Input
Amino acid sequence: MPIEIFLAWRFLRDGRLQTGLIVVGASVGIAVMVFLSALMAGLSTSLVRQTLGTQAHVVVRPAEQVARALRPRPGDTLVVAAVERAPRRLRSIVDWPARQLEVASMPGVTAVAPSVVGAAFALRGTTRRSVTLLGVDARSFGRIYAVEAHLRSGRFGVSATGAVLGVALAADLGVRVGDRIRLQAAQREPETLRVEGLFDLGNRDVNERWVLVAMRTGQTLLDLVGGASRLDVAVSEVFEAERTARRIADRTGLDAESWMARNGQLLVALSSQSASSMLIQFFVIVAVALGIASVLAVSVVQRGRQIGILRAMGAPRGRVVGVFLLQGVIVGLASSVTGSLLGAGLALAFSRQVENPDGSPTFPVELGPWLFVRAVTVATAVGWTAAVAPARRAARLDPVEAIRNE
Amino acid sequence: MSEPAVLEVEGVTKRFGAGASEAQVLRGVDLRVEAGEFVALVGPSGSGKSTLLHVLGLLQTPSEGTVRLSGLDAGALDDAGRARLRRERLGFVFQFHHLIPSLTAEENVRIPLALASGSMRATLRPRALESLRAVGLEAKADASARTLSGGEQQRVAVARALVAQPGLVFADEPTGNLDTENADQVFRLFRRMHAERNTAFVIVTHDVALAARCDRVVTLVDGRVTSDLRTPSGAA
Ligand SMILES: Nc1ncnc2c1ncn2[C@@H]1O[C@H](COP(=O)(O)OP(=O)(O)OP(=O)(O)O)[C@@H](O)[C@H]1O
Ligand SMILES: [Mg+2]
Output
């Protein structure tokens, strides 16, 4: 065993109380770091997942129609009028099957689902609810939204005469699977459909408004026969969605909006939360470093004579430096192990403690291996850094001063 | 004189401080110690004996003058070079043992060997044990240094100073803290190492009786060598 490691270990073992206290202190610091990181990661993942449960990564729509002013011809009487935006009429994506194939072939895109989406009313007896009607192809739609996994009852197949709705809407209308509702849109006669399934996608608005029908049925109801008003796109890396959206827009000339653009505030909130958690972690780490440094500085003073005799016996300065740097590293490593365990335990206990009414944790935590790798790396580096000043002080110690017979 | 002296100093001075508070402790010391000599360094308190020993042992640099170990000029060496010379050629025993209390007796003795090789390996243990046997403490090899008596600790320190078989050992009042019986034991150890391995010794002592048992007595007064005598035992 290299003599530095041997001496570092023995010095630490000898000052059991000091070593123990500083390892406990540093462990608490590392635990705070692990705990905060796990919480932030968990929160971010669950918020993003929740958001993406009811939103496609990228939504592609027909390009916005721009009202063009007529160029006046010489001699014409010029009539000045305010250009009013035409009320948004539902339009189809031109040649959408080709566009769907084009988008599906782009890198990073995992699924594309065409749909017709428009406003409608759901009628049952005298109850009338305004809803969002989605004419979808169940297979491709299911690859974007996990409807199947969130079915409360019935099934998600949407036959030509069937509809699948959110649980909240069903409750409002007082319907169950097998009941009939009428849907009316685009000033047409209402159509009667059979409720085939009820879903709970975890989003109040969606549960209250979405009505899924077969694509053909939707096209008829919304007066857009053969058309698709949007393409929903799933990508492999959710945080690459914005880039993919821009590429789709460039390639197809269509409007493409990513979930990131739609949820800018959420992302800002997440990044500012993670920034403040980083700041807290930084100060905790500084405190840990100062703690280790002060314990080692005291140890250098206490062991002055021993260091002096080592130097007299011909120990080079470098070895003395090594002995104290290693003490810092050992303390850091030990603290990272206990601190990681403590932090992980704390995170798990905390996430179990506070639960939503449905039994899921209010504060989900994410304990990936990277967290522990980071804890070990940071703790070791901090131990090392903290030991630099005491180690240099030990190396500069004058052996004669230390040895003087007093 | 074919072989260079194991220790040779010329015109060594040592001043501490500067300006009004300057203190001149050594005022031009010339001294030559041949291989295998057994020298006592005596003198009144404050005469500069310890300071001289530190300069000779390369623990302090002289203000002026040269220190040569086996012909090698220590003034030409940097800190690492001086550390290397101490490691390879010198042994030290001080009034207070300066053992590392968290190690066992044997581990303390093993340190100089480990410093030479860089590793505290187990294969060095037999040599450490042998050195402990020479001071009569093999039985206490695995006892923690802090559990030993004062006399035992000093004998461990002697074993530590001798384990790497240095050509020259400096001892600063090695028996100053011991009762007569322990003092005598330590001194006899020195004499035996001297006899067995021809190790040269420079021993600072206040004990006239001990000084008389050395081969040569150098007296230092006020930073100067005032007498340098061969004792009858040494001359014999
Ligand atoms: N670092 C220093 N700074 C200032 N003065 C010093 C220093 N080291 C030693 N001295 C002075 O040098 C003088 C000689 O000290 P030294 O320890 O060499 O004496 P000594 O002969 O060993 O005495 P003793 O027999 O009492 O041990 C003393 O007056 C001491 O105060
Ligand atoms: Mg002295």
The beta strands of chain B are 7-16, 23-33, 38-42, 64-69, 72-73, 90-93, 168-172, 200-204, 216-221, 224-230.
